[in-house]
Design a protein that fits this description.
Elements: H1 2-31, H2 35-46, H3 56-82, H4 87-93, H5 100-117, H6 122-133, H7 139-153, H8 170-184, H9 198-221, H10 227-245, H11 248-261, H12 264-269, H13 271-277, H14 287-304, H15 309-315, H16 317-331, H17 337-354, H18 359-373, H19 382-399, H20 402-405, H21 411-415, H22 420-437, H23 444-453, H24 471-485, H25 493-504, H26 519-531, H27 539-555, H28 559-576, H29 580-595, H30 602-617, H31 622-632, H32 647-672, H33 679-694, H34 701-716, H35 724-742, H36 745-751
């Protein structure tokens, strides 16, 4: 391959050198107005284009140098005619060149001047040139020659309104030029050679396609090619050449050229003619890509303005495209599933743009896709799977409303053909769409349909591989499902309860379908839901939820229900929560929740309070015990409940906390040789001050003074270990007392006895 590239570079260099040498002598002849020598050296210069050793890319470099020289020669021919030389004689003279290729290049150059002179009808000269150019059948040389003819004659075509207008239209003239070029596309397949050079030949064929496409682009720019002309003459003739071409690469490229260069309006009005050519193409042609691009252009055209939508309805675009895709898939039985899914994805996008109100059309496309997938099983092709995701995402992107998407009966069926991982990806897309658009799900049947779509995030699907699960991904998925619950909303309590029950499924519904929704039934459902956390296991979360439910029952004045939730929380604490840190967190949650309860009678509250204080005193670490016990003091003093102000029991809790704090100091002294921090004592002092200000008569100035002196003595003790944080805490507390004393009035009088 390296040697081949080097040889080609040498051949190109040699060709350029020969071309430049003859161009030099041609220029000298032009400067001296020597027509005969100018023709002689120009023919020798153009002979360099006869080479067959260069790839299209390298040949193009040689061609462009010759093209530049021919433009100079054309200017010379124009000057000759002004000096009296007959253009007809000049046209005859260049035909004496020895080789056909240089002769035809010279004929085209003189022909350009001939047409401009108007000494003969433009149509006749152009037709003559086209006929003679057909003599070159070599793929590379022929295409470049026709490209040259199209370039020099494009401004001289006898178009409507043109100065060269005649009985021929520009379209007819140019089709004469395009016909052999389209037919020569067959010659692309004539680049034969050893099998080992197949990739090289395919590259060369791709490079030549651009030359063919350029002429179609010129044709599309001619003003005379109106819709009627395009429909009656241009498109049928071009399609005839494409179909007869029989070469897969040429057919695919030319069909794509037609779609890209002509106006959207033309495609829409000739849709039936254009689509009729697709089943006639070679089976190996990549029809999915070409058809998809056609539908993409039409989709963008529909989205550009609402004023064009009636045109789509008038020509029944959806029906024609749908039928065409069905025929193509039927004709190409070996079409990979990727191709079929891509076509249906493009058709669905088109449908959503053109007929957003016709859900039946969208569902029809999904149904056709399901039918095609039915014989395939789970998709294994990653590219086909991506197209399925695009297909399913299109309605979500268009409607921004899952409720509308749920009306598509075939939507869930398409999801059945993707693997479990893709199912999860699609489920996440659905949830993200709901959250982004704040879509409310308001009926039980919609909830059922929605959770059927996202079932891959809720339970293992049949056949799912049980590989190692990424914990972060799993948490994200489950959090998404949890957030989705917040989107279930209905102002009707009865219907809202049905939404929640729908999540469990009818086989798990303990209440039956009859009867009205009551708060007790709701709490029963909540209790059952929390019980499922036992199997996870997640005891800390379950305890937290039990306490939240107890508060909700408190707000509903349901004492038995609230008491039952507290009971379940206590059982969970005793049986399932063994970690010391988790116990500390749990007991403070219990104390805080119980303190806010107002629904309990004396007996139930005493029972629950007694258990809470008991749990507090049994914590593993003394500091934790101390803090939990003094927190229990709030259970006996609730500001907004006069019957819940037991000053004596508050004092008992605080004294018990002092004893535990003192025991903690002694244990620290025994094990470390120092009494440790006085932080616990300062914390208890702050509790004393709190209840002192709240009017608890059991907490007096003398008790506070005694506690201050105790803390001061501990801090001055030789066995006390320095603790700057505790010192700052105590100093701040003393400043607060001093501040209260300075307030004056009742507050100042109350604090006056305390010495700091």
């Amino acid at each position: 391959m390296v040697d081949g590239v080097e040889d080609e570079e040498k051949w190109l260099a040699a060709g350029i050198a020969g071309l430049q040498q003859n161009a030099f002598y041609m220029h000298r002849a032009l400067d001296s107005n020597n027509l005969r020598d100018a023709l002689k050296y120009s023919a020798q210069m153009l002979s360099e284009l006869r080479t067959s050793k260069l790839s299209p890319q390298k040949y193009y470099q040689l061609y462009m140098r010759a093209f530049d020289e021919l433009r100079k020669l054309e200017m010379f021919f124009k000057e000759e005619t002004r000096r009296g030389c007959s253009i007809i004689d000049l046209y005859e003279l260049v035909q004496h060149a020895g080789n056909i290729l240089p002769r035809l290049y010279l004929l085209c150059t003189v022909g350009s001047v001939y047409i401009k002179s108007k000494e003969a009808p433009a149509k006749d000269v152009l037709k003559d040139l086209v006929e003679m150019c057909r003599g070159i059948q070599h793929p590379v040389r022929g295409l470049f020659l026709r490209s040259y003819l199209s370039q020099i004659s494009r401004d001289k075509l006898p178009d409507i309104g043109s100065e060269y207008e005649g009985c021929y239209t520009a379209c007819e003239s140019f089709i004469l030029l395009a016909d052999p070029e389209l037919r020569l596309a067959v010659g692309l397949s004539g680049l034969q050679g050893p099998a080992r050079e197949k990739d090289k030949r395919e590259k060369e064929r791709s490079e030549l396609r651009d030359l063919v496409g350029k002429n179609l682009h010129v044709l599309s720019q001619i003003e005379g090619v109106d819709l009627d002309m395009y429909k009656e003459t241009v498109l049928p003739r071009v399609l005839e050449q494409v179909v007869n071409c029989k070469d897969e690469i040429a057919q695919c490229y030319l069909m794509d050229c037609i779609i890209q260069v002509f106006p959207d309006e033309y495609h829409l009005q000739t849709l039936e003619i254009l689509l009729g050519a697709f089943p006639q193409l070679q089976p190996s042609v990549d029809i999915k890509t070409v058809l998809s691009r056609l539908m993409e252009r039409l989709s963008n055209y529909a989205a550009s303005s609402t004023e064009v939508l009636p045109e789509f309805l008038q020509v029944e675009a959806f029906s024609k495209l749908n039928n065409a895709i069905g025929k193509v898939i039927e004709a190409q039985a070996d079409m990979p599933i990727l191709g079929a899914v891509t076509l249906y994805s493009s058709l669905l996008t088109f449908t959503l743009h053109v007929h957003p109100d016709r859900l039946d059309y969208a569902d029809q496309v999904l149904g056709a896709c399901v039918k095609k997938l039915s014989g395939e099983g789970k998709l294994e092709d990653n590219r086909a799977t991506k197209q399925i995701v695009a297909l399913l995402s299109a309605p979500l992107d268009k409607y921004n409303d899952i409720v509308t998407v749920l009306k598509l009966s075939n939507y869930p069926s398409v999801m059945e053909y993707v693997d479990s991982e893709t199912n999860k990806v699609m489920a996440m897309v659905i949830i993200q769409s709901i959250m982004k658009n704040n879509t409310q799900i308001s009926t039980a049947d919609k909830v059922g349909a929605l959770f059927e779509l996202i079932k891959g995030l809720i339970r293992d699907l049949d056949g799912a591989a049980h590989d190692q699960v990424d914990e972060d991904d799993f948490k994200e998925e489950q959090n998404s499902v949890a957030r989705l619950i917040q989107m279930l909303q209905n102002d009707d309590t009865e219907e809202m309860f049905k939404l929640v029950r729908q999540l469990q499924g009818p086989e798990e519904n303990p209440f039956g379908e009859e009867g009205s929704t009551t708060p007790k039934k709701v709490f029963q459902l909540l209790n059952q839901t929390i019980e499922t956390l036992y199997g996870v296991p997640a005891p800390e979360l379950a305890l937290r939820l039990y306490l939240q439910c107890a508060e909700a029952a408190n707000d509903s004045d349901l004492e038995p229900v609230a008491y039952e939730f507290f009971t379940q929380a206590y059982i969970l604490y005793e049986e399932e929560i063994s970690d010391s840190r988790a116990q500390v967190t749990a007991i403070h949650l219990i104390i805080g929740t119980l303190q806010r309860m107002h629904v309990f009678g004396v007996e139930n509250r005493d029972t629950l309070t007694h258990k809470a204080t008991g749990y507090s005193a049994k914590l593993l670490k003394k500091p934790d015990q101390c803090r939990a016990v003094y927190a229990c003091s709030h259970l006996f003093w609730v500001d907004d409940q006069d019957n819940m102000k037991d000053g004596e029991r508050v004092l008992l809790c605080l004294k018990r906390a002092l004893r535990i704090a003192n025991a903690a100091q002694q244990m620290s002294n025994a094990t470390r040789g120092s009494t440790g921090s006085v932080t616990l004592f300062v914390e208890i002092l702050n509790k004393y001050l709190y209840f002192f200000e709240k009017g608890n008569t059991q907490i007096n100035a003398a008790a506070i003074q005694s506690l201050i002196e105790l803390i001061t003595a501990e801090m001055q003790s030789e066995s006390n270990s320095p603790d700057p944080a505790a010192d700052a805490f105590f100093a701040s507390t003393l400043r607060y007392i001093q501040f209260q004393k300075q307030k004056g009035g009742a507050v100042g009088e109350k604090y006056e006895p305390i010495k700091v």
